[in-house]
């Protein structure tokens, strides 16, 4: 299945997971809304299924009285029938067992119970009514799962198409980080030159020192840090090139209702590790939380890595227009939109 990844959720994605649970549990099963978020007090681990940049399902694990439980298993209706649920379940179970868990306790709806039995789970009690539908108490033991799933013994992960990116923390930068951020972009530009990438950024021209400083003052610059070093950075605001006015955007929105991504970059030593994807994912969630209608951006024509990144995360390519930037002069840029 193209565009599908299954991974651990970030803290910023929890509200979106709760919204999906409300849609399914309240809408389909008549479970009271006040019960939906109660599991959060148990500090759960959540996994999500993401297709083309959109979260379409989730599953969670938590501890109760020193027992590991698995549940809160949802897939949006229009994405069912594609085995996303099966992949979510296998991904979560595999990781739990790999991390030392021996027994998983599950209370499963009928459809989930069938999947759990198929991977070695067994009933430990009779099904009982729970709002609209039945729930079956079940247990899944590591040894039973191992016998049913030889892939557990021979492969590092049960689905080769699933990306297990390291979860990163993305935070709003402070003004006292200006010199470190400027040095970070200089290192990125050095890396671009060494790789002969089509990106045309130039030191202190794009992104300029004034642009970085203003973005810091406005609280619009975000960074990724590892070991005290900046490894990623981007700017999220409502400003865009004048030529954006010439595009027929599919989403009708004022400037204040659109988030624009600028200067998204990852340090060359961390390239190819999924950092950029998580930064874009953060931008999507951040825009949703701020009630934006769309995210827009432009990519210099020929920057194949950026084109692949945004297209693969659900951004819609709209058209190519000539634009003027200080680093490139007049050049062709491709315009993309992600509708929220």
Question: In words, what does this structure look like?
Answer:
30% of the residues lie in helices and 31% in strands. The protein contains 9 helices and 15 strands. The longest helix is centred in the middle third of the chain and has 18 residues. Strands 1, 2, 3, 4, 5, 6, 7 and 8 form an 8-stranded mixed β-sheet that branches. A 7-stranded mixed β-sheet has the order 9-10-11-12-13-15-14, with helices on both faces. With 340 residues, the protein is of the alpha+beta class. It folds into 2 domains: 151 residues, Aminopeptidase (3-Layer(aba) Sandwich), CATH 3.40.630; 170 residues, Gcn5-related N-acetyltransferase (GNAT) (Aminopeptidase, 3-Layer(aba) Sandwich). Strand 14 and strand 15 form a beta hairpin.
Architecture of the largest domain, according to CATH? 3-Layer(aba) Sandwich
Number of strands: 15
Strand content: 25-35%
Principal-axis shape equals: elongated
Would you summarize the structure shown here?
This protein is 30% helix and 31% strand. It has 340 residues and is an alpha+beta fold. The strands form 2 sheets. Strands 1, 2, 3, 4, 5, 6, 7 and 8 form an 8-stranded mixed β-sheet that branches.
Provide tags for this entry.
eight-stranded mixed sheet; seven-stranded mixed sheet; Aminopeptidase; 15 strands; 340 residues; single chain
């Amino acid at each position: 299945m193209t565009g599908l990844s299954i991974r651990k959720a970030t803290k910023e994605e929890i509200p979106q997971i709760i919204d999906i649970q409300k849609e399914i549990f309240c809408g389909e099963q008549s479970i009271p809304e006040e019960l939906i978020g109660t599991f959060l007090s148990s500090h759960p681990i959540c996994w999500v299924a993401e297709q083309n940049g959109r979260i379409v399902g989730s599953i969670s694990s938590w501890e109760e009285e020193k027992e590991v439980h698995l549940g809160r298993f949802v897939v949006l209706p229009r994405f069912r029938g594609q085995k996303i649920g099966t992949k979510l379940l296998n991904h979560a179970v595999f990781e739990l067992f790999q991390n030392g868990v021996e027994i998983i306790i599950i209370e499963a709806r009928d459809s989930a119970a069938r999947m759990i039995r198929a991977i070695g789970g067994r009933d430990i009690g009779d099904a009982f009514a729970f709002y609209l539908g039945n729930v079956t108490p079940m247990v899944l033991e590591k040894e039973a799962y191992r016998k049913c799933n030889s892939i557990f013994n021979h492969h590092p992960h049960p689905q080769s198409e699933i990306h297990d990116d390291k979860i990163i923390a993305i935070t709003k930068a402070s003004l006292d980080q200006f010199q470190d951020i400027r040095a970070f972009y200089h290192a990125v530009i050095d890396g671009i030159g060494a790789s002969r990438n089509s990106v045309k950024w130039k030191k202190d021209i794009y992104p300029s020192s004034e642009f970085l400083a203003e973005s810091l003052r406005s609280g619009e610059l975000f960074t990724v840090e590892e070991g005290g070093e900046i490894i990623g950075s981007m700017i999220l605001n409502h400003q865009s090139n004048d030529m954006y006015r010439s595009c027929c955007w599919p989403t009708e929105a004022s400037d204040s209702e659109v988030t624009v991504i600028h200067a998204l970059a990852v340090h060359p030593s961390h390239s190819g590790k999924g950092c950029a994807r998580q930064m874009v994912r953060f931008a999507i969630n951040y825009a949703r939380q701020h009630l934006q209608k769309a995210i827009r951006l432009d990519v210099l024509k020929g920057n194949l890595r950026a084109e692949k990144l945004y297209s693969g995360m659900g951004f819609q390519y709209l058209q190519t227009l000539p634009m003027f930037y200080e680093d490139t002069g007049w050049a062709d840029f491709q315009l993309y939109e992600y509708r929220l």
